[in-house]
Design a protein that fits this description.
The protein is built from 6 helices and 16 strands. With about 290 residues, the protein is an alpha+beta fold.
Length: about 290
């Protein structure tokens, strides 16, 4: 998801504020707020995202059923969870990770959220640990924790997508993926050029053009000691960015011209959501490309 917003007023912050308004208008149906028991009318909303968007400002002066919100915004790396199945959850967080004027790097802050909004993609085992704590603690989440956990490993996701393709055929195209349990298996690969990625790290992607380059990267992949995924190199005409909060969906097409900055255009979506049955997963919609560049 594209990271919206900065601390200065502008289109991106306005986007976040608009998203916050839509989020709050749908929260009553997504999460039973009246059942969240606290000692006051103020609720703690944990937003898991980086600091590119100030969600505290986006939710300022917003209320649901007469309740105001105190926003705690942190990344997955900042969070440590203590949870029980009785719903007791605490988050010790290093204060240096918080954007506050008075900071003590040796002090931790602790809080108990009433509900959660996840905007950051989990990519490490430590992030998986946070998800497990959230699930066990039973903290209401606008996002589907079940879905996010299932989407953690690409082989699992593509196995489900392949089953959907068997039903829809060419109407539902899926990129060919090859699973390899170890880096040494790369020596058997013959179809070049290709893209090699390591486990669930979407940022660790390498392009290989021949067997010599494969031999060069195998020692690097062996240090990670995890499975790898290989896919053919496809020249993409555009990138799709799908965002969802509650029942609000947005789809953007990003094209990269030969000169200048990338161009982002919002496109229409239609409710053809075969992917929504993916293990109670994220609802994905098929966009209409009538306004998209070829």
């Amino acid at each position: 998801n594209p990271a919206p917003g900065t601390a200065q007023p502008g289109p991106k912050l306005a986007n976040a504020a608009s998203t916050a308004s839509n989020f709050l208008s749908n929260m009553a149906s997504a999460v039973n707020v009246s059942n969240i028991k606290t000692d006051s009318t103020s609720k703690c909303l944990l937003v898991i995202e980086n600091r590119s968007t100030d969600w505290g400002k986006a939710f300022a002066n917003k209320t649901v059923q007469g309740m105001r919100f105190r926003v705690e915004q942190h990344t997955f790396d900042d969070l440590t969870i203590i949870a029980t199945n009785e719903g007791m959850v605490q988050f010790p967080i290093l204060k240096k990770a918080c954007s506050r004027k008075l900071r003590d790097d040796n002090k931790e802050i602790r809080f108990r959220p009433d509900f959660i909004l996840i905007r950051q993609q989990p990519v490490s085992k430590q992030h998986r640990t946070v998800l497990l704590g959230l699930k066990l603690g039973g903290i209401p989440s606008i996002n589907s924790l079940h879905s996010i956990y299932n989407m953690f490993d690409p082989p699992w996701v593509f196995a489900q997508l392949a089953r959907i393709r068997m039903r829809f055929g060419a109407e539902f195209p899926v990129t060919t993926k090859t699973f390899m349990p170890t880096a040494n298996c790369l020596r058997r690969f013959r179809d070049f050029p290709a893209i090699v990625s390591s486990s669930n790290r979407s940022d660790a992607r390498l392009r290989v053009r021949n067997r010599d380059q494969v031999e060069d990267i195998i020692p690097i992949l062996q240090q990670i000691d995890d499975y790898i995924m290989v896919e053919p190199l496809v020249k993409a005409a555009y990138e799709l960015h799908v965002t969802r909060i509650g029942g609000i969906y947005s789809v953007y097409v990003q094209t990269s011209p030969q000169e200048g900055n990338p161009v982002v255009e919002r496109v229409e979506i239609t409710p053809r959501n075969g992917c929504s049955r993916l293990k109670c997963g994220k609802n994905l919609f098929m966009p209409s490309f009538s306004t998209c560049p070829a």
